[in-house]
Amino acid sequence: MKSITAALRDPAYFSPDEGYEIYQQGAGKYLGIDTRNGTILYVHRIRKGQVDVVALTMNDWTKCEVEGTNIFRLFTQFTDLPRLEIFCPWAERWYDTIGVMRQKQYTNAQAFKQHVHHRL
């Protein structure tokens, strides 16, 4: 997973600050939020050799929620992946941050999806 996320990092598209990304190795998941570019990257190793990589912008999700203090959920507009869920010690902060991000206008966000497609 780290090789995938490293290949997709680019300051113009996706470069999350410390505290806005988490690798959940045991579950085979990664979630990163780039607050400057308005982009989100979700990587999920489904089984050995099969990995889902999902590039999201602020227009690709419908709502988010926190369960307890450490489970972050993001509901998407994708029928094949309607919900992302990850254990995260910063779930409440992410919830607040992404709500504010939704109100901003990001100019390069759509290009992020093309960037991910070309890099994989």
From TrEMBL:
<protein>
    <submittedName>
        <fullName>Surface exclusion protein, putative</fullName>
    </submittedName>
</protein>
